[in-house]
Specification:
disordered C terminus; alpha/beta; disordered N terminus; 5-stranded mixed sheet; elongated
């Protein structure tokens, strides 16, 4: 636990009863208090009048030369001894001290009354008092606080003179707080499991809670939004499981729900968002949705990710972004650290960091977006690493039973939200210490992960290591479901409903999964290339004399050749450069994928040597034709054993029958 700093000695001595009586008898010049009585039953600091009794508990003071009354904040002077109003009622209710990674970020907790007669509380770094006065004034005015134009500097002077004795711990980012003991503390905007901890971003702007908030009750949300339908339930559990990444020391990851229009994608996003904040459709004007769109700059998405630390990052319309390299963007977001930048003095700034789950929707899969052609028209290859960071789940149809159900959920997400997530966190922090909770999550995760893997094997789907890793996100979702059942936050939810939903979703996911390893993807790429080009871009070796060679073929035909078919060995031959080009992977990965089909050369080498013209021999990789056995594209399947017969029956022109022979 952070050691509480010793409060400073009060700047002003507490007044005596006689001084209080004398002060109460003084007239309040130039101040219209709208017949509302001053709180004269409150202790007063000499020379000042306190406007709101809950602001004064014997520890807070108003600086000399200022008066704080019901009407607002007044500056007293020789010309205006009664005070001249220059701002609405505002008080520094506490100081913040920063520790650990946030060291050097001390600040002030401001509470003020808006022109709509509501109270707001914001926390600012003390450094903001030394920037241009208009910056802070503009931010406060955005919350509805009144400041007389031209008096912005006076407000900074007042705030800087306030010396409250209450201290809180400044935390620069939402999510789990690193403490010196075994205590679990979680911070959100304007809410914390420990009131001594206060969110205070170190950025220049005021902390914002746009999207993160609460409306209605948990019962309202359960009755109108929650459903035990498998896919929506798993989607909610994925959103809820984001705070579990830290106990598991898992990197950021995500899932992309993709499909045609009207398959419930945005509704799923709204349900996931409503766990923590506003569940309104991002296209609905006048709302403050938790959901954002992909069409932000890379820097903007980094800032948004940092503001969603240990919460889900819900992004709609994955195809709307302008990013040319979607794969790199996914790597950056899942990497958990922003770019290193310098300030105006060329000092390195502290990089933004986060740990979260991306919940994405769109008509295109993440693989399609990763493989879209670059500016040179060349199609990129999606890497298995990137695919694991943003899993694809294809929605062939809507997971909801009817249109009225969808309409009800959409409307309810806009009205009731932000209840389940904080209730889940409060249940955790009230029951466990950090070590106990981390141990429990680890045990639950291993149980869930082993169960999901065994379930897939029972269904006849043996998985490789990469595919197993892709199921970790679903195992984490099951852990959040197990905890929900333990806490009884949703009385109708049972462990059987959780595991049945997870099993159904993963069993529908795995057969369509494109989360193969890089070597497997390279093998698939080679198979598909040979299948589609074996008669157009591969020349048959058979029947040529030693004096015939590649260069006797017309140049226009020669430029189309990328490989050769070795008739006697029934194999396809390609150079390493061609294999790297058609797979988009380095040769080591390609060779690993083709290991079962590569013919061995002399001295057990991976390559065989062939002659493309008399006296010139080159090494190539010989790929046994059985590589195509049972493999099919969208048009036809191939029986590798019949390849030789097909070649022999083709009627080649003399120009085509030009090739090479083995050494």
């Amino acid at each position: 636990m952070v050691k509480k700093a010793k409060p400073p000695e009060p700047i002003f001595a507490q007044p005596t009863p006689d001084e209080i009586a004398e002060e109460n008898e003084k007239p309040i010049d130039a101040v219209d208090i709208r017949t509302k009585p001053i709180f004269r039953d409150c202790p007063l600091v000499k020379g000042n009048i306190v406007a709101h009794d809950h602001w004064f508990d014997g520890r807070r003071t108003v600086p000399h030369a200022y008066k704080l009354v019901n009407e607002g904040l007044l500056k007293c002077s020789q010309e205006s001894p009664g005070g001249e109003k220059f701002a609405g009622p505002i008080m520094v209710v506490a100081k913040t001290v920063s520790v650990g990674d946030d060291d050097g970020n001390n600040g002030l907790v401001l509470e003020f009354e808006t022109m709509e007669n509501t109270f707001k509380e914001v926390t600012i770094p003390r450094a903001r008092l030394h920037r241009h006065p208009a910056e802070l004034a503009q931010d406060l005015a955005g919350y509805g606080f009144y400041i007389t134009p031209g008096k912005e500097k006076e407000l900074l002077l007042y705030l800087g003179e306030c010396q409250p004795s209450e201290f809180r711990v400044a935390v620069s980012q939402i999510g789990w707080v690193q403490t010196n003991d075994d205590t679990l503390i979680f911070v959100l905007p304007n809410w914390s499991t420990d009131p001594k901890y206060q969110l205070q971003p170190s950025a220049q702007a005021l902390p914002t809670s746009v999207g993160i908030g609460k409306s209605g009750t948990l019962r309202d949300w359960i009755d109108t939004v929650f459903t035990t339908d498998p896919l929506p339930l798993v989607n909610i559990l994925i959103s809820l499981s984001t705070p579990l990444l830290k106990p598991m020391a898992m990197p950021s990851c995500g899932i992309n729900w993709h499909g045609e229009s009207s398959t419930g994608k945005t509704t799923l996003a709204q349900m996931a968002a409503s766990v923590w904040g506003g569940g309104a459709d991002p296209g609905n004007p006048g709302t403050k949705p938790y959901i954002n769109r992909w069409n932000s700059t890379r820097n903007g998405l980094e800032g948004l990710a940092s503001a969603r630390n240990h919460l889900p990052l819900v992004l709609d319309e994955s195809g709307s972004g302008d990013e040319k390299d979607f794969s790199k963007l996914v790597y950056d977001l899942s990497g958990g650290t922003g770019k290193t930048r310098m300030d105006a003095s060329t000092n390195i700034k502290k990089s933004r960091a986060w740990q979260l789950i991306i919940i994405s929707t769109g008509e295109k899969s993440s693989r399609e977006l990763m493989e879209e052609s670059n500016s040179y028209g060349r199609k990129k290859t999606a890497k298995a690493g990137a695919m694991l960071r943003l899993l694809d789940y294809h929605l062939a149809c809507s997971p909801f039973s009817s249109g009225p159900q969808v309409d009800k959920i959409k409307a309810s997400c806009t009205k009731f939200y932000g209840c389940l997530g904080p209730a889940f966190i409060e249940a955790i922090t009230s029951r466990y210490s950090e070590s106990e909770f981390f141990k429990l999550v680890g045990q639950y995760f291993q149980t869930s992960f082993d169960r999901i893997i065994a379930c897939n094997k029972t269904a006849g789907r043996p998985l490789d290591s990469v595919q197993e890793r892709s199921l970790k996100l679903f195992a984490l979702a099951e852990v959040s479901g197990r905890l929900l059942v333990d806490f009884n936050l949703i009385p109708t939810l049972t462990l059987d409903l959780v595991t049945e939903a997870i099993d159904k979703v993963t069993q529908e996911y795995m057969p369509n999964s494109v989360n193969l390893s890089d070597s497997e993807r390279a093998l698939q790429a080679v198979r598909l290339y040979i299948l589609r080009n074996r008669y157009s871009k591969f020349l048959n070796i058979g029947g040529l004399s030693k004096n015939e060679n590649l260069y006797s073929i017309p140049e226009e035909r020669r430029s189309e050749i990328t490989g050769y078919y070795h008739e006697s060995k029934n194999c396809y031959c390609m150079t390493g450069e061609i294999l790297e080009e058609i797979t988009g992977s380095n040769l080591l990965i390609v060779k690993k994928g083709l290991s079962k089909f590569l013919l061995k050369g002399e001295k057990d080498k991976d390559t065989i040597r062939v002659t493309i013209m008399k006296g010139e021999r080159i090494p190539v990789y010989g790929i046994d034709a059985s590589v195509l056995d049972g493999f099919a594209d969208e048009e036809h399947a191939v029986d590798g054993s019949s390849i030789l017969a097909k070649w022999q029956n083709l009627d080649f022109t003399p120009e085509q029958i030009q090739a090479f022979e083995d050494a």
